[in-house]
Amino acid sequence: SMVVSRDSGGGSSSGTKHYVDNSANRSLGRVGLPYGACGEEVRVYKDNPFNRKLGRVGLPIGAAVKSKSGSLELKLYADNPENRRLGRAGFPLGSRPKGSFSGSKRTYCDNYLNRQLGRVGKELGTEPVTCSKETEWLHKAYIRYRENPDEDIDYRNLPALPEEVEEDAIEKLMHLINRLQIEREWRETEKQTKPVPKTSDDLLSYSGPILEFSDIKLGKIIGRGGFGVVHYGKYKDSVVAVKKLHVMRVSKRRQKEFIDEVNILSKLDNPFIVKFIGACTTTPDLCIVLEYMQMSLHEALHVDCADLADFTDGDRLMMITQTLAGLEYLHEKKVAHCDIKSRNVLIDHDGEKFTVAKLTDFGLSMMKNETETSQSSNSELVRHIGTPRYSSPEVLRGELMNLDQMKMSDMYSYGLVVFEIVCEEEPFPNLSTAQLRTQVGEKNMYPIFPDDIHPNVHLAAKLLGCWDRKPEKRPTATDFLKVMNRISCVYEKLD
User: Binding site annotation covers 217?
Assistant: First the structure.
């Protein structure tokens, strides 16, 4: 740890520790300051033969890295708006972590939901609402990593997980950690004008759908699905997300699904649909390049909530309205999403607060072909499609469904996402797939609002409509959006 002295002025020990005069403390500008005055203690390279040889003893860990050539590279915080604001531009990398200089920890703000849950003023992320065991585990493990990124995570001290989801949960944690590391590196080392990685405006207006794989730079994996993995990447010097298929699993059926998804994405252009930039269509490098977004709605609500000040009432209203506008656009384009869930809603923020929400992942979507007539447009039939926890009763029952029926199934799933936004509860968190088929599929179970949460009556009525057992009675996205455009808050203001 950092060497300190004990002040014993006047012959009597006051017990006050001060930073001593050494190279590390001089580089940090804190010689003589009371110990702890500059925030959390900074971890430094230990005094051992290897570090002495590299000349980095006492420097903050991460600030002096051995390069491939064997020489020592001293890394500094770049001179950019974020680092100037934090007063660390030009200082050794790692010496002034953001958390150490950003003041007190963030707390739940004073809004309707937090007042009803009795958590106003408490540390953000410490009082999550009902969620599944996997999500609870993911939240606790991730927060533990955020607080101590240099320490190994002791899984023994986390809640036990069912064996069948443990491997998947650990993999999701690794993807979240990769994303966090990417964003920290962005803030600390790149001369950027934005505090978080974003796809450039020029690239968002790019209209060349066929890309050369050699022009894409793949970074860390930030997600995974049945199709393959999602990488953080670079294209034309801009940040992107790259959805790449499994190299060894590109069957003819999967190639067709890939082409279908590209065809759907290439026809979509809406501010509330994640922007399609292009695709590589040559095997084995099949991939889709998309706009990079900060995180999923699921992560923001249940896992990484400390990264944002919690959502205001206005944020929640905007989130519902934006995603609903995206869904209306899809349905007008004769596309059924078929897998609406909070993980498939991506959000952006500006480093502090929410800015936009968009729909993503059209790998399971259905679309009417240009050549189909109105009589043949519903000829394709599907069953058991989507994610069980967010599936409509008819999907859980395994009914064969056409495009129009799947659009109404989208509305059921969307109602569950809105419930999640309003209450911060996952739908049916403790039901297995078999239980979902019985309770939701056969008995028409739907979420119940907690006694202390009172959603706007018009919003609540539309949600109940979304969960109607008869799909034809559910509101369309257009019907729902008309209601949302007339209300000013997602909650009833009860005195």
Answer: no
